[in-house]
Amino acid sequence: MEKKSIKDVAEKAGVSTALVSYVLNNRMQGRISEATAARIRKAAKELNYQPNRIAQSLKLQKTRTIGLIVADITNTFSSQIARIVSEEARKKGYLVIIGSADEDAQKCAALIELFLSRQVDGFIIAAADNTEAQLKKLLKQKVPLVLFDRYFPSLKANAVTIDNYRASCTVTEHLIAAGKKRIGIIAYETGLFHLQERLRGYKDTLQQHRLAAPASLTGFVNIDNIEQDVARALDVMLSSRGRADAIYFTSNKLAVAGLKVLVERNIAIPGTLAVVSFDESDSFDFFHAPLTYVKQPLAGIGSEVVSMLISQMDMPASKITSKVLDAILVARASSQPS
Amino acid sequence: MEKKSIKDVAEKAGVSTALVSYVLNNRMQGRISEATAARIRKAAKELNYQPNRIAQSLKLQKTRTIGLIVADITNTFSSQIARIVSEEARKKGYLVIIGSADEDAQKCAALIELFLSRQVDGFIIAAADNTEAQLKKLLKQKVPLVLFDRYFPSLKANAVTIDNYRASCTVTEHLIAAGKKRIGIIAYETGLFHLQERLRGYKDTLQQHRLAAPASLTGFVNIDNIEQDVARALDVMLSSRGRADAIYFTSNKLAVAGLKVLVERNIAIPGTLAVVSFDESDSFDFFHAPLTYVKQPLAGIGSEVVSMLISQMDMPASKITSKVLDAILVARASSQPS
DNA sequence: TTGTACGCGTTATCAC
DNA sequence: GTGATAACGCGTACAA
């Protein structure tokens, strides 16, 4: 029951190892007599031979392995994407190794190094803040790469994203249509483009509707201090003067933190305050009011990202492509007029 | 910026590849002049040389890769374990590749094959139902293996578990102490030992306290039909005659499904019904009553499982060990006397 | 310190 | 037409 090598199969079939390789890979058909081919296949099956992928990889200079780096694996968005990407890649004969950068540029760099030393064929990355330099280095080394979720306009890399600006516009329009006039936003203090886009969509839409967007209705949150920052920002928005009548959380994590505060403060949702979140969270399951949220096309992102990377790997000279998928606003009770 | 090999370093330093290997691996210290060693290290750094782990693996017949197979990656329990195991293994120089068996014996077998063909050094597995035969095969092939969460008493394999029987006793005692007399249980229809143990702990404890455990208070759920089965079981338990005053969900997934039903039926928790869950779920975040649940020592399981596997890999002849960690009952409002 | 035979497949080249 | 030989890929570690 020891692991068998191609040599074992060759001996059992009474041929050279070369022939075994040819037959099992269905190459050089016609150049090999069907009789010996059958003998080889039989021997391989009887020995339960499985080619050693390490040896294959060394020879072929390809591991058929993809490195996936997500922003934060504890976030449903990331774990869902990881599941979908793994499955899509498996269908195409690739193995995915997963790393979580935990929104940290250092960790991201370490993961890239780790995966490179393991000779991954390509990367799928949801970039953390301040990782542009690392990504640029990868691109310079011509490592196949596809970005998703987050991306840098300055970077000439393949990317699969949604239109964060437009999604935010939709959210804001939705709240305005529900009669809200003092719409607050909770956003990260970040250099990440896609998050800035969410903020921009909100601001532009308000302006377009001649609605105020005072600083008191814009809450910036430091990612390392979410709970306190969210609480502080909400308390400002809910203070007597110019009290907010709606709040748009630009991420699910912000929404969870925010909703906990709102529950503590006994704020009626959607009665006195409408709420919208970007992305889902399992936590929403039992929130008393079903939550309105922006739903990203996870399956689409996952499959697109994989096929884009594979085509890049197959034709290294192919040019950069970027694809924008549509997000959907799922309107539910939390943002409806009560 | 092309990838450098050991040969490049050797040439640049004007030595043989053997020396480079020795120096970079800190072998044969003293037998190599410090001057050339320094020259080699300098050359390696300048070329940004990273050894090709594929070649290393082929030569050493070790990949320093661990295959982790979890039951269901969408479950918090699994994803947390995956995160912890990956991190623990990384600290010790191992890479973890993750697969989700989705509670399916076929998928589990496919993952084992996939990982074996990738020459993982060992496995960490939360076994799905009906996978005993596959695991036995692995053991026969002397593949290092550690089981966790689920295990088979008949299998002589390393294992890290909790005492499910005792945890269930604790849950039941807790409910009894809270004055509950008609305690229902929702459990999977399964051959998995650890789940049967949970049921056994509940039954024994009831019997010990001379409390009834009629069939109407025991709900069996098929894993492929959770929603309906849970709803049906709960409706029986809540029917007028001999109505349950407490319910013990033997998994977080069952609890989530069950709580949705209970909310629909307008059952007051803990007012008319106390509830306990095994394991947590993000969904519990906003359930109106904080949920009492059995908390498993995830960090402990994760680190133990990794160190157990590594010691097994380092000394293949070492004998089977199994470790039982303690679970804690986190008592909160959902099971307190109202 | 160095040469080189490994590990295990793949594939170009050579032989009958 | 059929098949074998051998040179890779890249580190490692033994013999010299």
User: Which class do the helix and strand fractions of chain A yield?
Assistant: alpha/beta
Mean pLDDT of chain A: 95
CATH architecture of the largest domain in chain A: 3-Layer(aba) Sandwich
Q: At the fourth CATH level, what is the homologous superfamily of the largest domain in chain A?
A: Response regulator
Along the chain, the helix and strand elements of chain A come as HHHHEHEHEHEEHEHEHEHEEHEE
Most extensive interface, chain pair and sizes: A-B, 46 and 44 residues
Distance between the termini of chain A: 69 Å
Beta-strand percentage range of chain A: 15-25%
CATH topology of the largest domain in chain A: Rossmann fold
**What number of structural domains do the residues of chain A give?**
3
Poorly predicted ranges of chain A: none
Q: Give the overall silhouette of chain A.
A: elongated
Number of strands of chain A: 12
Sheet with most strands of chain A: 6 strands, parallel
Relative helix content of chain A: 40-55%
Top-tier CATH class of the largest domain in chain A: Alpha Beta
What kind of oligomer do you see? homodimer
Strand neighbour order, sheet with most strands of chain A = 2-1-3-4-5-11
Instruction: Please report the number of helical segments of chain A.
Output: 12
Radius of gyration of chain A: 26 Å
SSE topology sketch:
Two copies of one chain form a homodimer.
Chain A: H1 6-13, H2 17-24, H3 34-47, H4 53-60, E1 65-70, H5 76-91, E2 95-100, H6 105-117, E3 122-125, H7 132-140, E4 145-148, E5 158-162, H8 164-177, E6 183-188, H9 193-208, E7 218-221, H10 226-237, E8 246-249, H11 252-264, E9 274-278, E10 292-295, H12 298-314, E11 322-325, E12 328-330
Helix pairs in contact in A: 1-2, 1-3, 5-12, 8-9, 10-11
The first copy, chain A, binds a DNA duplex (16 and 16 nucleotides) through residues 5-7, 15-22, 25, 27, 30-33, 36, 51-61.
